[in-house]
Amino acid sequence: MTFPVLPPFHVGLVVAIASGFCFGFVLERAGFGRAQKLVGQFYGYDLSVFKVMFTAVVTAMTVVLLASAAGLTEFKVIADHAASATWLVPFVAGGIVVGMGFVMSGYCPGTSWVAMGSGKVDGLFTVVGSMLGGLVWSELEGRPGFAAFHNATYLGSFYLWELFHLPARAGPAIVGAAVVAMAVACFALAERVERALAGRADPLARGTPGGRPRRFVISGLAAGAAAALALLLVPVGTQAVPSPAQLSAADLARRVLEEPWSVRVVDLRRREACAARRVPGAECVPEPELGKLGLADASPARDLVLVADGSLAATPPAAGAFPGRVLALSGGWKAWEEYALAPPSPPAADADPAARDAFRLRAGLQSALTGMKAAPPPPPPSAAP
Question: pTM here?
Fold first, then answer.
């Protein structure tokens, strides 16, 4: 929220609705609510979408760079917060799927809402389809096979000036100047392409006429808007944060070793203690700093596991906003220390296979985390004569 929420009037939501209305109005008046207008860029006879969006990118980039140079903001902080990390294969696959949907429907996810708001039935179907696609993705996101694909080829976060080994201070300005020069050249080239391919323009690329479908869509939107405005007046009450489910040290060890993509471990102890020893892959975030992680906007695909000094009886408020499942290490760090860092006692000679497997896991984990040679397992019991 950019603005505070003051019951009974949710100021932030009202401002969001007003700014969204203005943005949609501009897009509609620019013709971005018509499928023919957007598809024209793929055929080359109408590159308005490319020119408008590229202009917006260049303008925003230039304003941020100038504001950073004037000391009004910090460019690197904004970039680290806003820029996404890179997963190469999922990004390529997602770009192909989105591009196919763009061409077949004639809308991108944003302009489909503009078309639906102006009463176009094809825009309504595109919005419904994007919602169903998001629902399917959310159901598949936590599956082990899909999660492995979703996290494949992780390259981290990097920027163009780092890729070209430019100086840290002057690198953003150099890249910004190069992008502006590229934009000017691309705009000139786009004008030439439009003139060369003007004969391919669709003669039916006109606005959608009115009628029953248009009235049906707009009346449905008006009813939805009235219901949303009525809900804005409902006071927001406080909701108790439930206690986190407990996760044993053995279960956490197996998930960290066998399914590391399924958990996000956050150590709530003092930073010095966490830096000395912690669960493999754990993030050292003391509880007072937990709000800096932005857990309310984090992906719910991974379970959030909290590690405290002892048992965690209540979920911290910042962790309670996490949309996924919140777990707490049963017994806290002391339980993990006893399980993973202390040498395990060998099982009896006649122990069952499950006990032997548990011993091997603890012995291997203790050896890996402490650097000590793991104790050999006991010999198997001899066969009866």
Answer: 0.48
